[in-house]
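Researcher: Next entry in the queue.
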Amino acid sequence: MYQIPRFVPELTNKIMALKLASVSMVRFLFLFVIYYILLMIPSTCGTSDSDLSWICSLTQNDEHCKQLLLSDPRTNSSDPPLISLISIELAHKQATYNLGEFTGYRDNSTDPSLGKLFGNCTEMYQAIVYDLDKVYGLSKQGDYKGVLNEGTPTKEVYDCENDLPPSLPTMAITEDMLLALETLSGVASYVVYKTSRHP
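Model: Structure for this entry, 199 residues:
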């Protein structure tokens, strides 16, 4: 009767061991790739804390800048195109609010000279709202360099406040407007950087 040489079972066992090792390696590599993809999802599909820090470092008050952006619940999960729109919407909301305030001051003023100053501010904020509408359109079209190049109407905000007597309670809303515009500008720089690297 023919006997199988002793080395044959040993060789078979080694081959089986190699096959099992190969299968294990393939499974390991597959799980590693899945894990890597899951790690990458937050940084590519959302605005991280480091992104917000980068944006807000370009403003005069990074803490208030973060608070402003995070006041919109979409910010944490926003990609660059969305956070561009969010920053413009926040600035537009503040500009519209300030426009209403200055319009009310103008209409209720009993001092003609003061009423004229409030009227000037009203006209300036009408122009600011118009400019932000234009910038919003550029952002919707994906023209982020256009948004950045358009700039922000901070001059009008300063001109309005500087012409008013310092005793008036308008400084707070002026500061809120300037912060919103600075935040918009920071986001615009961030979005241009991100979209130029990942078109």
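Model: The chain is about 80% helix and 0% strand.
Researcher: Noted, moving on.
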